Amino acid sequence: MHLGAELGCAAVSLWVQSPTPQAIAPPLAEDAALRRATKEALTKTKLNVITVECLALTPATDIANYEPALAAGAELQAKAATVIAFDPETARQQENFNRLAALAAQYQLVLNIEFLAFSTVPNLAAAQTLVQNSKAGNAGIVVDSLHLTRSGGNAAALAALAPSLLGTVQICDGPPSMAPELQSVHEGFEQRMIPGEGSFALIEFIRALPPEKIIGVEVPLKNLADAGIPVEERARRAIAGTRRVLEQAYAR
Degrees (nearest 5) of the Cα angle 85, 86, 92? Predict the structure, then answer.
């Protein structure tokens, strides 16, 4: 939080649930002392929590197991929770999304599905179908510039999305293509590019958004971490790159 405030950010996203064995979240859902310390830091820095991450729908999902994560999100005054999906059985996936949205509503949280090209909700159209079929008043869609690009989407499709369905927004950059076997762990969790340093159509992406929308920055930089670049400097570079892109997008 303190780093986000120092860099001039308005809000943060917090991980409270590990979606995969490779992605380890801080134990905010289980550790009351850690939640207290987090709340104190949020108060001191005056940062809001946009979303808590990251729940996953799989064939083995028991929705009740996610209640501690949602409760932690509510305690931290988050606005939403993010879910991803890896269930090949469409009906079960829909039912679990419906049930999770209902549980999130009990904690005054919006449930946003993040589509990933390598998941069972692989694109914007599939995410829209899932949300609309749920008929939940607290359901929306996470749009990440990486996943929109890798799934074949574009700014025109984003602009056509009903604003009521647009949940949280995330930005990063990347090369023109990525081998499918590297899209999940490598690009998804470890290595992306700072906005403005890759080939994504970020100017068009930003212009397709409602102007008041908060844009999150999700730019894991394993290459710099491995080179010994401190997290503070990695974050500074990512935020600076994002601001340059924003300035270009709004300089009409």
Answer: 80
Q: Is residue 178 within 8 Å of residue 187, measured between CB atoms? A: yes
Among residues 189, 166, 226, the alpha carbon closest in space to that of 18 is found at: 189
Parse the chain into domains and list their residue ranges: 2-250
CA 212 to chain centre: 18
Q: Which CATH number fits domain 2-250: 3.20.20.150, 3.30.310.170, 3.40.980.10, 3.30.1050.10?
A: 3.20.20.150
pLDDT in tens, 197-250: 999 999 999 999 998 899 999 999 999 999 999 999 999 999 999 999 999 999
β-bridge partners, 83 = 55, 113
pTM of this prediction? 0.95
Contact 209, 167 (CB under 8 A): no
Angle at 183 between CA 66 and CA 91, to 5 degrees: 45
115-161 pLDDT tens trace: 999 999 999 999 999 999 999 999 999 999 999 999 999 999 999 99
Task: Give 3-state DSSP helix, strand, coil % of the chain, rounded to 5.
Answer: 45, 20, 35
Distance from C-alpha of 166 to C-alpha of 219, rounded to nearest angstrom:
21
Q: Which amino acid is at 136?
A: A
CB 47, CB 54: distance < 8 Å: no
Side-chain half-sphere CA neighbours of 30 within 13 A = 6
